[in-house]
Specification:
Blueprint lengths: L1 H70 L2 H25 L2 H24 L9 E2 L6 E6 L6 H4 L2 H7 L3 E5 L8 H10 L4 E5 L2 H13 L3 E5 L6 H5 L17 E11 L2 E3 L2 E5 H6 L8 H13 L7 E4 L4 E3 L3 E6 L21 E6 L4 H10 L6 E6 L1 E6 L3 E6 L2 E6 L2 E15 L14 H8 L5 H7 L3
Parallel strand pairs: 2-3, 2-4, 4-5, 5-17
Antiparallel strand pairs: 1-6, 6-7, 6-17, 8-11, 8-15, 9-10, 9-14, 11-12, 12-13, 14-17, 15-16
Helix pairs in contact: 1-2, 1-3, 1-11, 1-12, 6-7
């Protein structure tokens, strides 16, 4: 009882201290916003306002140019590309010629500082829950499945087989000259032979398949960052530059539980993609010529009849006809199609849902100006996502792997079913900046923070 009371007192003290620091950052953010407005008002003058507004127009024109470049072919694509490049350059020339470049640079610097301070305020209020593991004893019979083809041959390059065997692990190789081996069959064989830990050195798709077997038997699971991108390893805080460090989980590991996604009975650790991206990756030429293949197919997918019309139902919402849909195992920090890329937590028991629909140059311009707040972006969370279509089967990309699934496609999440084992000493997941909600910042600066925000941000 005394220990519980002590933990509560420490947590409460940390909470109030965090709110105080967050309030200071929020007030600094508002002060910098005021400074930005003052610089613009004082330096622009009556005619200068028009010049500064031209900067926003230039950004909008660049977004429209990108749309024309992606959604058309031939001369329209060329003109769109030229507009995307010349609009920002024209704005810079206009600023230089009018003598307002000092005002523009100063205003941008103050605005960048305001955004950084606002994000610092929100970051101070956020302490990840459930991702701090407990110390785990070394396994007695670990089995690691390694794909020798992943990541351009990282398994051989870093000597992972020899290093793992030196630590007492049994290694099963995939992708050798003897042919392809089924990772699920190998994982089940290892469990039947008494393995007390399963691990994978390979891509996210292979990791998901073996992770499902580990979850089924409640065994700890280890990820060795030997794939090409390793998004799952990134969000687990592993060192993606040196996969050897992942092996430290066998000797000095900590353990915590994370969620596992499911799409029509198939596990996924990262994302399931529908729409334009899923259609493009089905093409055999995509792996060798990603940019060319994408540009060849996008006009038909965005404006023509080449794409599939999707109809998406979540727990609380309906999303009709998105051109691209991303369902993720836990939500990304930001829905910005040009940024984000990080999941702050992997244990919320929720799927992230991001839908994108841009129907013309005007919406593309809005997207360039507003980012994830544009009307063409839908971002929400749900425990269950049902994707229906105007076809019996649709292309789906599961953790980057191209599949063809019957409709409706159902995505769900299995909360806390996977026992993750990671090295005790690891870089940690980089901070994923949240979307800045200026209403929250104002409330926080005035001493009236949102109680829900604090409740969600602290595990007390």
């Amino acid at each position: 009882m005394n220990e519980t009371r002590t933990k509560w007192t420490l947590a409460t003290t940390h909470l109030h201290g965090g709110v105080g620091r967050a309030r200071g950052w929020a007030r600094l953010a508002l002060l910098l916003v005021a400074g930005c407005a003052a610089v613009v008002a004082g330096g622009a003058g009556s005619g200068g306002w028009l010049v500064l507004l031209t900067g926003l127009a230039g950004l909008a024109l660049a977004g429209a140019g990108v749309w024309w470049m992606l959604a058309h072919r031939g001369g329209a694509r060329l003109l769109g590309g030229l507009l995307a490049v010349t609009a920002p350059v024209g704005v810079l020339v206009l600023y230089a010629a009018s003598g307002l470049w000092v005002v523009a640079v100063g205003a941008l610097a103050l605005w960048a500082g305001a955004l950084a301070s606002a994000r610092a305020a929100l970051r101070t209020l956020r302490r990840p829950k459930g991702m701090h593991g407990h110390k785990a004893l070394p396994p007695l019979r670990p089995v690691l499945i390694m794909n020798v083809r992943s990541g351009g041959g990282k398994v051989e390059k870093y000597g992972l087989v020899e290093r793992a065997e030196a630590l007492g692990a049994k290694v099963v190789l995939l992708g050798t000259d003897d042919g392809w081996t089924d990772p699920v069959a190998e994982a089940r064989r290892a469990v039947a032979e008494g393995a007390d830990l399963l691990g994978v050195a390979g891509g996210d798709g292979t990791q998901a398949l073996v992770a499902a077997v580990a979850a089924e038997h409640d065994l700890p699971f280890v990820v060795i960052a030997a794939g090409t991108r390793n998004h799952f390893a990134m969000d687990l805080g592993l060192d993606r530059t040196d996969p050897v460090r992942s092996l430290d989980a066998l000797t000095s590991g900590v353990e915590f539980r994370v969620d596992l996604g499911d799409v029509d009975g198939r596990p996924f650790v990262n994302t399931v993609s529908f729409g334009a991206y899923a259609e493009i990756v089905q093409n055999p030429q995509y792996r060798d010529a990603k940019a060319t293949t994408t540009l060849d197919h996008l006009p038909d997918l965005l404006l023509g009849d080449g794409g599939t019309t999707l109809d998406v139902r979540t727990d609380d919402a309906h999303v009709h006809a998105p051109q691209a849909l991303l369902v993720s195992n836990n939500a990304y920090a930001r829905a910005d199609p040009l940024g984000g890329g990080r999941r702050p937590r992997l244990d919320t028991g929720q799927l992230g849902v991001i839908g994108i629909r841009v129907e013309g140059a005007a919406q593309a311009a809005e997207l360039a100006l507003l980012g994830e707040r544009a009307s063409g972006i839908t971002s929400l969370t749900s425990r269950r996502v049902v994707v229906e279509a105007d076809r019996d089967r649709i292309p789906v990309a599961v953790d980057g792997e191209a599949l063809d699934l019957p409709t409706p496609v159902v995505c769900t999440v299995r909360p806390s079913v996977l026992r993750m084992r990671v090295p005790r000493h690891r870089p940690g997941a980089a901070y994923a900046p949240p979307t800045v909600d200026w209403r929250r910042i104002v409330r926080l600066a005035l001493g009236h923070p949102d109680p829900r925000t604090i409740k969600d941000a602290y595990d007390v």
